[in-house]
C-alpha cells in the first residue's frame, strides 16, 4: 500500500505538475483564431503579459518604440506558433534581417491602427516596412519592386545614416499599397510616374494594332504556314483582337475584355516566334508590307482627290430644288411686287457698294446677311448681285421675300450685258471653243492632269470672269468691294473705302507665307513670255475680298491688259484656265497689300487654320473644294456659315435643306 502511494505521488510530481505549469503559461499567448484577426510584430512574443524580445534581434528600450502602422491579414488561415516548416523559417529569417536593418537606423512611425488598444506601444512593424518598400510576399519569396532598393537575398551596402533615414521617410510618405499575406497581390500599384516609367498615350490600342501586323507577318511566312494548328489559333486570335479593337482610337474606347485578348494574342505570337526564328525573313516581309501599304495609300489619296473634285462640281439636291421653288413663286407675283426699294441708291458713289457674282442663292444670302449684320449703318450699303438667266428669277424672289434690313439690293441678269460677247472678250471666245469644252468635261485625262483642280467646269462660267470688267458693269462708281460667294463677313468693312491705295488698282491680302502661293505655282515660267515679264518668286495674293479703285482702273486701262494676255494664252500655254493666274498677271505692279486680318483664307481646304486668326478676321474665306454648303465641308468651320441661315424658312424646309 505504501509502495502504491509513492508511485502515485511521483506520477503527480513528474507528469501532472509540468502539464499544469506549462498549460498556465501557454494560456497567456494571444493567438488569432480567425482570418479577420491580425498578426502583430513577429519580432516580439507576449508571454505572461511581458514583452520578451527574440534572442536574435537586438532591441532598443521599449519606451522609444511606437505602435506599428501595418496590418497584414491572412486568408483562410490561422496562426500556430508551432509551425516550423521550411518556408516559414525562411520568411522569418528574411523578416528579422529587414527588421534588424531598420532598427539599426532607428526608424519609428506613429500608430494609425484602429484596434481596441489592448497592447502598449511596440516597436515598428517589420511587415509594415515591407509594405512601405513595395515588397511582394508570395509563397515564401520576398522581392523588392522599388527601383534602387537592394533585394533581401543580396548583401547590403552600408549607407549614410542621414540619407537612409530620409529615404525611408520619403518611401513611407509615398506608399499607398497593402499586401495580402500568402498571396502577395498588391491592392494598388504605385503610379507610373513614381516607378520612373512613362506610359504612351493609348498604349493598348497601339499594342493591339501592332499585334495584328505581327499576325499578318506570321500568316505569310513559310515556316508558320506549314503548322496548321498554329495558323488556326492565330487566325482565331486575330479575329478576337479585331473585334476588341473595332473602331477604337483611344484606350477608353476598348471593351473590358480587350486586355485578356491582348494577353492571349501575346502567347500565340510567342509560339510563332518559336516556330519562325529567322529575323531576316520577318524583316523582309515587313518591308513588303510597308511597300504595299504605301502603294495603297498613294492610290487612295489619288482616288480621294478625284472624288473630292467630283463632289465639288455637283449641286446638292436641296440647292437644286430651292431655285425651282423660288422661280415658281416669283412668276406668281405681279409686276409691281417684283421691284426692289431704294433703287435710287444704286449709283450713289458716296455709299458703300459691293459686287457679288454668283448663281448660288443660299451662298449669296449668307454673304449679304453677314455683311449687313456687322454694318454700323446698313442703310448705307448697296449690294449688286449678278447671276445667270436660270437663277435670275429665283435670286430676286429670295431677296424680295427676305430683304436684308435697310440695305439696298440689286439683282442683274448677265444676259442683259449685251456688250459682253465673244467679239469683245477673248475669254468668252475661248470658253465656247470645242477644245475647251472637251478639256473640262472629258474625264479620261483626269488621271494624268496634275492640275486637276483647274478642270472644274465652274471656270467655263462667264460670271467667274466678270471681276475683270468692273468699270463696264459699274460705270458711275468710284470704288467697289468685290466679294466671293464662299465668304462670311465678321466685322464692319466700311474701313476699306477709306484706305489710300497709293495709285494702285486693287487692294489684296498677300498669301506668300507658303511656297505654293508664289507666281511660279500658277504660271508657266518655261515660256519666255512669262519668264521675261514676271518674277517666279513674287508674292501671290487671293481673290475673294478685294477693294477696287475703278477710276485708277480706267486710267491704267486694266481691261485691255487683261485682254492682251488672254489672247496670248489661247492654247493654255501660259497658265491653266481660272481667274487667279490671269489676275496675278493683269494686276502686276498694281496691287496694294492689305493687313492679313481683313481676309483669312483656307477654311475650304485647311483644317488647321488658327482659331485666333479666324476670330480676328474681318472676312473668312472657304476657298477650296470643301464648301460650307456641301456635306464634305470641314465640320468645325460650318457653324460660321450656317448661323446666317434660317433653316426654319418655309422654302428651305420644303427642299429639305438642313444644317
Automatic annotation (TrEMBL):
Pathway: Glycan metabolism; pectin biosynthesis. It comes from the Eukaryota. GO terms for biological process: cell wall organization. It is found in: Golgi apparatus membrane. Its EC number is 2.4.1.-. Residues 115-135, 154-170, 186-195 have a biased composition (Basic and acidic residues). Residues 98-114 have a biased composition (Polar residues). The keyword DNA-binding does not apply. Residues 98-197 are annotated as: Disordered. GO terms for cellular component: Golgi membrane. Gene3D superfamilies: Spore Coat Polysaccharide Biosynthesis Protein SpsA, Chain A (3.90.550.10). GO terms for molecular function: polygalacturonate 4-alpha-galacturonosyltransferase activity. It is a single-pass type II membrane protein. Belongs to the glycosyltransferase 8 family. This is Hexosyltransferase.
Amino acid at each position: 500500500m505504501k509502495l502504491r502511494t509513492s508511485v502515485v505521488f511521483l506520477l503527480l510530481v513528474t507528469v501532472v505538475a509540468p502539464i499544469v505549469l506549462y498549460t498556465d503559461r501557454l494560456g497567456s499567448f494571444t493567438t488569432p483564431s480567425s482570418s479577420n484577426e491580425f498578426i502583430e510584430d513577429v519580432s516580439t512574443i507576449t508571454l505572461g503579459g511581458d514583452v520578451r524580445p527574440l534572442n536574435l534581434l537586438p532591441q532598443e528600450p521599449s519606451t522609444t518604440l511606437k505602435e506599428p502602422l501595418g496590418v497584414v491579414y491572412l486568408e483562410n488561415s490561422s496562426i500556430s506558433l508551432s509551425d516550423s516548416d521550411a518556408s516559414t523559417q525562411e520568411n522569418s529569417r528574411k523578416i528579422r534581417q529587414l527588421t534588424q536593418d531598420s532598427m539599426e537606423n532607428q526608424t519609428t512611425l506613429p500608430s494609425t491602427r484602429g484596434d481596441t488598444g489592448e497592447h502598449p506601444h511596440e516597436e515598428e512593424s517589420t511587415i509594415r516596412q515591407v509594405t512601405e518598400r513595395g515588397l511582394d510576399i508570395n509563397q515564401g519569396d520576398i522581392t523588392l519592386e522599388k527601383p534602387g532598393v537592394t533585394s533581401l537575398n543580396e548583401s547590403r551596402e552600408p549607407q549614410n545614416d542621414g540619407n537612409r533615414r530620409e529615404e525611408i521617410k520619403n518611401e513611407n510618405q509615398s506608399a499607398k499599397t497593402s499586401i495580402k499575406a500568402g498571396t502577395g497581390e498588391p491592392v494598388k500599384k504605385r503610379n507610373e510616374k513614381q516607378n520612373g516609367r512613362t506610359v504612351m498615350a493609348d498604349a493598348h490600342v497601339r499594342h493591339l494594332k501592332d499585334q495584328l501586323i505581327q499576325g499578318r507577318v506570321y500568316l505569310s511566312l513559310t515556316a508558320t504556314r506549314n503548322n496548321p494548328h498554329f495558323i488556326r489559333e492565330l487566325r482565331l486570335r486575330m479575329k478576337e483582337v479585331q473585334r476588341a479593337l473595332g473602331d477604337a482610337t483611344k484606350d477608353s474606347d476598348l471593351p473590358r475584355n480587350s486586355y485578356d485578348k491582348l494577353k492571349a494574342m501575346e502567347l500565340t505570337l510567342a509560339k510563332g516566334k518559336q516556330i519562325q526564328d529567322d529575323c531576316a525573313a520577318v524583316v523582309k516581309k515587313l518591308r513588303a508590307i510597308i511597300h504595299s501599304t504605301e502603294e495603297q495609300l498613294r492610290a487612295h489619296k489619288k482616288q480621294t482627290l478625284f472624288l473630292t473634285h467630283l463632289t465639288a462640281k455637283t449641286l446638292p439636291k436641296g440647292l437644286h430644288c430651292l431655285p425651282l421653288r423660288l422661280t415658281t413663286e416669283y412668276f406668281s407675283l405681279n409686276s409691281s411686287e417684283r421691284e426692289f426699294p431704294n433703287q435710287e441708291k444704286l449709283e450713289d458713289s458716296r455709299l458703300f457698294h459691293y459686287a457679288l457674282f454668283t448663281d448660288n442663292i443660299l451662298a449669296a444670302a449668307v454673304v449679304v446677311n453677314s455683311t449687313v449684320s456687322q454694318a454700323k449703318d446698313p442703310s448705307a450699303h448697296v449690294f449688286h448681285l449678278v447671276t445667270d438667266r436660270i437663277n435670275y428669277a429665283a435670286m430676286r424672289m429670295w431677296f424680295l421675300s427676305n430683304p436684308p434690313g435697310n440695305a439696298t439690293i440689286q439683282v442683274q441678269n448677265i444676259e442683259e450685258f449685251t456688250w459682253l460677247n465673244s467679239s469683245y472678250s477673248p475669254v468668252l471666245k475661248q470658253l465656247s471653243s470645242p477644245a475647251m469644252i472637251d478639256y473640262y468635261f472629258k474625264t479620261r485625262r483626269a488621271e494624268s492632269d496634275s492640275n486637276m483642280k483647274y478642270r472644274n467646269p465652274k471656270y467655263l462660267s462667264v460670271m467667274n470672269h466678270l471681276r475683270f470688267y468692273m468699270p463696264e458693269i459699274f460705270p458711275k462708281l468710284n470704288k467697289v468691294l468685290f466679294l466671293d460667294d464662299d465668304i462670311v463677313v465678321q466685322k464692319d468693312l466700311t474701313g476699306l473705302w477709306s484706305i489710300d491705295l497709293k495709285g494702285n488698282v486693287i487692294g489684296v491680302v498677300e498669301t506668300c507665307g507658303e511656297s505654293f502661293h508664289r507666281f511660279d505655282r500658277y504660271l508657266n515660267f518655261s515660256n519666255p513670255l512669262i519668264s521675261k515679264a514676271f518674277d517666279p518668286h513674287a508674292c501671290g495674293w487671293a481673290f475673294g475680298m478685294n477693294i477696287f479703285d475703278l477710276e485708277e482702273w480706267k486710267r491704267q486701262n486694266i481691261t485691255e491688259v487683261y485682254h492682251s494676255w488672254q489672247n496670248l494664252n489661247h492654247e493654255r500655254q501660259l497658265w491653266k484656265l481660272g481667274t487667279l493666274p490671269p489676275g496675278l498677271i493683269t494686276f502686276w505692279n498694281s496691287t496694294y497689300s492689305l493687313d492679313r486680318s481683313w481676309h483669312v483664307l483656307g477654311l475650304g481646304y485647311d483644317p488647321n487654320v488658327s482659331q485666333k486668326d479666324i476670330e480676328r478676321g474681318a472676312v473668312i474665306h472657304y476657298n477650296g473644294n470643301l464648301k460650307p454648303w456641301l456635306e464634305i465641308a470641314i465640320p468645325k468651320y460650318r457653324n460660321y456659315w450656317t448661323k446666317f441661315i434660317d433653316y426654319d424658312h418655309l422654302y428651305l424646309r420644303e427642299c429639305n435643306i438642313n444644317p
